[in-house]
Design goal:
The chain is mostly helical. The chain has eleven helices and no strands.
């Protein structure tokens, strides 16, 4: 994959304002230049930020023996990374630590979405076992990144949620505003429309579907962890007139997206 990093997604300058708000909130900086070098630098910086955060504040979730969270640079360069020691959650300032983890976790996921966009394009071009392996690994790493972003005691989430309401951000602040997410969904649709899924073997197609399912399962886990079973999302609250909970809405969206990859062999 490292030979093709320069095929990543470069957003247009005419991005909707909500995308700019989303970038500003999560301290995302877009740059022009050598795409491969910029993305490689973002991966390494993200590795460092995540490792520092885990060392400082510990974790509340299961261990990650396969290093799916902070093993991206190792995977892309075929380098074996040393195992990391899991430490229980022990933040001196829990609220500040939760806000920081929410920030760094989302930054991590945005870097991985860039890699996923490249990987989907490779999958469409090659539709072979190697492309499937890369795509599946990145999906599972992305799932770990989502869980990591929510890796703090659920009772603290209210403090984090309060930072995502007006006037700091737009009303109905949502991950759907992310420009990278929008491009990834477009590439997912093309994967089916271009016939790449049909060119895969039965086992490889099942691997792709299973990996994507893991990403959506992780999103549902986050929703459920932070009260989505009984409460609405920020976006739903703004839209009004909705009776379904945040978790129900997320499950509905997951079903719709996964239907794109329904078995056809």
């Amino acid at each position: 994959m490292t030979d093709n990093l320069d095929t990543g997604f470069t957003p247009e300058d005419t991005s909707p304002p909500a995308c700019e708000v989303h970038d500003d909130f999560f301290v995302i900086r877009r740059a022009e230049g050598d795409s491969a070098a910029l993305l490689a630098g973002a991966i390494l910086l993200s590795d460092l930020l995540v490792q520092r955060d885990l060392a400082a504040n510990g974790t509340t979730v299961d261990s990650d023996p396969e290093r799916m969270l902070i093993g991206v640079s190792g995977y892309l360069t075929s380098t074996t990374l040393p195992a990391s020691e899991d430490r229980p959650w022990h933040a001196e300032d829990p609220a500040a630590a939760a806000n920081h983890r929410w920030l760094v976790g989302h930054q991590r996921f945005f870097v991985l979405m860039q890699l996923l966009i490249i990987s989907v394009k490779q999958l469409r071009d090659k539709a072979d076992a190697d492309a499937v392996q890369d795509f599946a690994w990145l999906c599972r790493s992305s799932a770990h990144a989502m869980r990591y972003a929510a890796d703090f005691p659920p009772e603290i989430y209210g403090v984090v949620r309060e930072t995502m309401v007006p006037p700091v951000v737009n009303a109905g602040f949502s991950g759907l505003q992310t420009r990278d997410h929008r491009e990834l969904v477009v590439q997912f649709r093309k994967l089916k429309q271009d016939g790449a899924m049909a060119r895969l073997s039965h086992d490889d197609a099942a691997e792709v579907r299973g990996a994507i399912q893991e990403m959506y399962d992780a999103h549902l886990w986050v929703c459920d962890r932070f009260g989505g079973r009984t409460e609405q999302s920020l976006l739903m609250e703004q839209l009004g007139g909705k009776t379904e909970t945040g978790l129900e809405a997320a499950e509905k969206l997951a079903r719709q997206r996964l239907a794109t990859f329904a078995a056809h062999h």
